[in-house]
């Protein structure tokens, strides 16, 4: 028996009602998932921090502590200070910059790319000579006239960060030069993009010696410290921090301020840094 027009019209209307109901439920679910409740501010986007590679474990810990205290998510990008500063110059979306030396922060400040009112000298560090943990070299005292070539062997290289741009490499070159060792070691140097890359060469046994920060040596169980460079052999190691001028993040200044807190200081000390 064929159905009449009234029956078909009733079924069509029923289908439209069901479809409309399903659509309303889907839209309501999306609304509940995407929109904040009335009177509640939407969450801030992650705070983006550009930090020197040597800060990795310490800044990860500090960022986690800040998030626990404030509820603000923090995303940290690590690289050599020179690379990060140039990325900020190219308008990379960073909110806070923490450099491993004052020169790159000065470079950004001269270009009005950081907020000088927020700039602080946050941390210090020491410079050390490291070797693979399973090697035979013994600890010794570095002094003018120290010859590191016997420890390198016939073909070994001294692992350093880039000596013309990366802070750790510049500190290392200055220290070796002040001890009268740079010219003899220059042909034996293996330069890396950042201090953690130089550390990795030693940790893997690809270089018998490397010059890194004391905090780096603490972070890598596959290396051990043979000697500490005298403080006067290189410029004072300073880690400045500041808010990036282009940042509009509401928590950027608060994060820089919090990095000076006792809670953050405890994190940095635990990882081998000097709190200033």
TrEMBL record:
InterPro entries registered for this protein in UniProt: ModA, ModA/WtpA
Keywords, alphabetical: Metal-binding, Signal
Pfam families: SBP_bac_11 (PF13531)
CDD domains per the UniProt record, alphabetical: PBP2_EcModA
Keyword Signal: yes
Source organism superkingdom: Bacteria
Signal peptide range in chain numbering: 1-37
Protein family per UniProt: Belongs to the bacterial solute-binding protein ModA family.
Protein's name in the database: Molybdate ABC transporter substrate-binding protein
Species of the source: Luteimonas kalidii
């Amino acid at each position: 028996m064929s159905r009449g027009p009234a029956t078909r019209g009733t079924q069509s209307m029923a289908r439209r009602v069901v479809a409309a109901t399903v659509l309303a439920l889907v839209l309501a679910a999306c609304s509940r998932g995407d929109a904040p409740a009335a009177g509640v501010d939407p969450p801030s986007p992650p705070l983006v921090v550009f930090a020197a590679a040597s800060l990795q474990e310490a800044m990860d810990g500090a960022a986690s502590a800040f998030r626990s205290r404030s509820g603000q998510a923090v995303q940290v990008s690590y690289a050599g200070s020179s690379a990060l500063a140039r990325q900020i110059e190219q308008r990379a979306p960073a909110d806070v910059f923490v450099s491993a030396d004052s020169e790159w922060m000065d470079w950004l400040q001269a270009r009005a790319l950081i907020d000088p009112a927020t700039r602080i000298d946050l941390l210090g560090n020491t410079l050390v000579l490291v070797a693979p943990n399973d090697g035979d070299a013994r600890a010794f005292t570095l002094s003018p006239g120290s010859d590191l070539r016997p420890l390198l062997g016939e073909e070994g290289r001294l692992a350093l960060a880039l000596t013309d741009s990366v802070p750790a490499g510049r500190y290392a070159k200055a220290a070796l030069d002040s001890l009268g060792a740079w010219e003899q070691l220059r042909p034996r140097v293996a330069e890396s993009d950042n201090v953690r890359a130089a550390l990795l060469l030693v940790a893997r046994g690809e270089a018998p010696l490397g010059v890194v920060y004391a905090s780096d040596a603490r972070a890598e169980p596959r290396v051990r410290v043979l000697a500490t460079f005298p403080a006067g052999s290189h410029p004072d190691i300073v880690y400045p921090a500041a808010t990036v001028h282009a940042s509009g993040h509401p928590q950027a200044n608060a994060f820089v301020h919090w990095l000076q807190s006792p809670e953050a200081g405890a994190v940095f000390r635990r990882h081998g840094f000097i709190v200033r």
